[in-house]
Amino acid sequence: MDPVLRAIAEPNRRAILQLVATGEMAAGEIARHFDVTRPAISQHLTVLKEAGLVAERRDGTRRLYRLRPDGLAELRGFLGELWPEALERFKAAAEAGAPAAPRMTGEPPDTTHGADEGRHGHRR
User: Fold this and answer.
1) Could you give the CA distance from residue 121 to residue 40 in angstroms, rounded to a whole number?
2) Which residue has the higher pLDDT, 77 or 105?
3) How far from chain centre, in Å, is Cα 57?
4) d(CA 67, CA 87)
């Protein structure tokens, strides 16, 4: 998982992954989307390939790259384990700090004395 985290830590590499997520792209086509040299893009693609995040296919002299979603499986699993617990903590914090529920009589709650309003309903 560490090579994947190192690979996606760099913003250009994340952008490359987004580009190749929808289909195969040639290295030159990928490079046109960036303000860096083609060798720099080649280095980014090598890092992504070594991390198992992109697959490379040769078509004549062209190298075509596409996302390997299974390359993110371990990271996805790790985050998936953390996510439910994080959501539970967020829910508990939100409920602990939530204002009282509005009355159930069908009338809207009285909002004329909110934190940003003065005693007579005027904004400060």
Assistant:
1) 59
2) 77
3) 27
4) 29
Could you give the residue ranges of the DSSP H alpha helices within the chain? Answer: 2-8, 11-20, 27-31, 38-50, 73-96
CATH class of segment(s) 2-71: mainly alpha
Instruction: Report domain extents, the chain.
Output: 2-71
User: What is the C-alpha to C-alpha distance for residues 23 and 69, in angstroms, rounded to an integer?
Assistant: 12
> In the predicted model, is pLDDT for residue 85 greater than 50?
yes
Nearest to 33 by CA among 6, 22, 4, 50: 22
Q: Are strands 62-67 and 25-26 parallel, antiparallel or unpaired?
A: antiparallel
- The pLDDT confidence band at residue 21, using thresholds 50, 70 and 90, is very high
> Tokens 């830590």 map to which residue?
9
Distance separating alpha carbons of residues 67 and 56, to the nearest angstrom: 9
pLDDT given for residue 100 in this prediction: 52
Give the integer Cα–Cα distance in Å for 93 and 65.
Answer: 43
